[in-house]
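We now fix the convention by which a protein and its fold are recorded. These numbers are not coordinates but entries in a learned vocabulary of local backbone shapes. A record is reproduced here so that you can trace the correspondence yourselves:
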Amino acid sequence: MKNRETSIYKVVAVGFVSVVFSATLGHAAIEPLPAKLEGSWRITRVLPTTNDGCWTKERAATLIGSTLAYHPTSMSWKGGAIPVDAITSRTVTDAEFRKESSGPKSATFAQLGIAAHSVTEVNMQHEDQDITGSSTEVPGDSVLLAAPNRIVVSACGVYLEATKAVAPKQVTKHKAHR
């Protein structure tokens, strides 16, 4: 009888652990979009880096002037809205960034115009998209919050600077009182 009770307890314990483990995997914590990132950003320039990429600097230059927009559940660029399944944020240092970037000539914070020791990196998970015609990568789905009103994004290994797009102020004409 004792062996049977022990077996039942083992089955119950294994079942409980399995349910908890499955629930944890199925419901990963989804972070909100950082408030500093929400809104529209205009790509202003290609950053001069030494890393290798699958795009040429000339190809990346065609993105200058385009706008990225970030919303709590989606992002958009050229081809319309891209639903975002999950958002993760972390603090990354220059050394970590270089180590995680591919190739022997990894980009550095200095090349990206980042003076801080560490910055926030935001990654947006989404279904593969064919926006650029050369990869399923979506420019802007991985973002470095480089400074207030300045982010760094990449497209196929080429880094781009974007600045917060500010809506133009509407000019109102005042009628003179007579």
Observations:
- Residues 1-29 form one domain.
- Confidence is low (pLDDT under 50) at residues 6-28.
